[in-house]
Design goal:
Helix content is 3%, strand content 40%.
Length: 345
Amino acid sequence: MKKSFFLFAMLASVAASAQSHINIQMLGATYTALPTVKFSVSWSSVPVVDGQSHHAKIWVWIDFLKVNVDNTTSGNTWTRALISGTPTATSGTPTRETGNDKGFWLNGVTGSYSETVTVSLSNIPANTKFNWCAYASDCPPNATSYSGGTYTLKGTPPFTVTGNGTIQNGNQYVGTCINSLTDATSCPGGIGRDVVHNACPCAPGLTAVGSYCRDLVADEATVLSCAAVTDGVLEIKLNDAGLTKTWNPNSLCPSGWRWPTIAELKCMQPVHNQLNLKYPPLNYGYWSSESGCTGVDVQCANNNCAKTWKFVANTCGCLASTCLGNKSYSIPQKETLDLGVRCVR
């Protein structure tokens, strides 16, 4: 998904950029006691020709310019239209943000979207003609980083932030907590992906995992309660990273991810079917980041081995070239099994 901010509009005579892949086309307006506008919007949430893609949920807003009785716009200015009621769409789902009438969310369906949207506007004088533009963004304003008590804000200034700090230099928020964030689009945002949240709300669509705001969908991950983790929540990749014969912690895992500990693998045991831990043989299990065996886990000479977790037996085994191989698990001395890797953080 794109992390840069995109803003696209189309007047009746102006085509949107062919590179944007978010297109809005004006279809018409009614000048009644409760004016309405109708437009089509199309975009893709899957990679397209140039590799660009957009979120399935976009923020839409409308500006208008009142037309005088002499068909001029003299003395009038472009103004944000206020949404009345819930807009309608041919296939997507429009939703309103509580307390925010300056725009609305539009959820698409699967893949590429083409919607016709009808919106009623409340702050235009009855039976008055007006020019108008519709806009859309798939990137809400967000705090993109945090360092030493300062968040960096991304979006379209000016920003409006509630929290325990102040805005400086236009895009810096000096404070440890952001409770709400909007920008010139009036789109609600918040603390961004992979940014420290300091126990404050994450941006819409993100989940607080440990100290950070995570995008579980984009990361292809899920969360699991686990007392073995300092904050009690373990984030787990939904798919196995691969197979390996070699104990090498963090190999095969993406940057920022790692192999689990035995204690974390034990947290996965009750739900290992739901996690689709698929690599055979499950009787031998998955690699752990722990080396050295102690106590009941002693399987190797000189404490020189790596541990694996047996999900079927619900026990800890030990694998390495120095394994004795004649203990309860009957693991060969020169291990040749490919064992699975599941990444966590």
